[in-house]
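Sequence, structure tokens reproduced for absentees:
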Amino acid sequence: GGKDLVIIEEHDGDFSMVGATSFHNHNSDETVEVLSAGSVKRLPATKIWYTHPQARKYNRLVVKPANTYLRKGEYNAWRGYGVPRIADSATSIDPLLDHIFTVICSSNQKHYQWLLAWIAQMYQDPTEKPGTAIMIYGLPGTGKSLVSKLLQRLWHPKHVLWANTPEQFLGRFNAHLEYTILIACEEAVWGRSNKDSDRLKDLITGTDLMLEPKGRQMVHCKNMVRIFGTTNREFSVPAGTGERRWLVLDCLDTYADCKREPGREEYFATLRKALLDDRVVGRFLDYALAYDYSV
């Protein structure tokens, strides 16, 4: 958009972008001694780095999975998965799969296979959208958010946007969507305006995004966004007759807060323990990467 940006990379793979002027001003107190015209001068360290011939310079930000060809001048914002892949059959993910089948899909085999295929496609082929979104409807305490948290853990945080209002991804300033793959939308209340509904439809099925960063010119990028939502509100998605963009699952309420089911605490303690175990989550990633979603 006509303004240079500086990319600041963190040790954990995260990064941020700031305007070059702000970057120089913020670090103006950091100086180094240089020999110039026979005398020693102190110059701003950022200015020296900025003009150094070995400084990395890019003219385009892209999100391309590992082992994908990068053109000259492309900065790859791909950060990959959130945990290492664990190909160990001795590490059980049965509690997670059982929860998805029994509670989330209400023991409906077709819904279960469809949901697993949707999940697998996202991790195997993240740059190609399926054109559909998921909404899990259920009473408070049914465990619907556990699946959302699992999917979030499988991605590096840079590729996840947690949202509880549609404005966070349908609003005007949407530059963060450039490297977002999963929008985890929890308990969001959808507006009934046609404008928001149309923008949401395009976000789900559209292949391109127009981004408007604050203070900069609008830019065009590839749309890789998927939406996985959870809600306990009856009006969960803005869908009409014949809607093909959404899979809405009415999950089982056996373990809902109001049911006081015996063994409820033990059931969820097992699931929470699995979500905190990197080996279990990594094993689920392996399962998703090996799952045949073409069937």
